[in-house]
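User: If only I could read backbone structure tokens as easily as an amino acid sequence. Those tokens are not coordinates but codes from a learned vocabulary of shapes. Could you go through the record with me and say what the backbone is doing? Here is the record:
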Amino acid sequence: MTEPTRIIAIRHGETSWNVDTRIQGHLDIPLSANGRWQAERLAGALREEPLAAIYASDLTRAWETAQYVGRAQGIAVTKEIGLRERGFGDFEGKTFAEIEVLLPEQSMRWRKRDPEFSPTGGESLMTLRSRVISAAQRLAALHPGELIAMVGHGGVMDVLYRAATRLDIQAPRTWALANAAINRLLWTPEGFSLVGWADTHHLDDDSLDEMAG
């Protein structure tokens, strides 16, 4: 049997748009000062972990977070576009409140987690899930018996949690997607399983949990 791949899945550190509940999607927003502090604390918490590889979304907020971990480990970070946030199209750059006012019908379908709904110019939940799972499985399969890190976004973490717990794509979210939290998974060819989620002991209580990406 293939030895399981151990995965540390990480959402990027905080950005100013997270604080504003403004949708980022594929827009390339950098970490805030607090986000950089979170990334530094994250790197310290993972310093003794025997990481074989670090993979990260190419968007700056995730890439920069991963760089802190990589420097602490002495490991180069590998870009993986499959770990990007969901493309939100016309939602990008708008706050949750603005979307409700400006795009009420689309907002309703988004809030209801309609699997087939795509914001104009964006991705559906089905497309996001397929992309993330495909990328995560491909990366995990390269490292049987090893520990790797995957640094991505809120939407990516949501997909991985649902995959590991076998939850439906439309099930209401009852778990945290905190910035710079440590989430642990196992992968074998049979799929993902959950080991631990939302460990933020290395952070203060100001980590945000929202779905703006």
Remarks:
- Residues 5-199 form a domain with the Rossmann fold fold (CATH 3.40.50.1240).
- Strands lie at 5-11, 51-56, 77-79, 147-152, 182-188, 191-199.
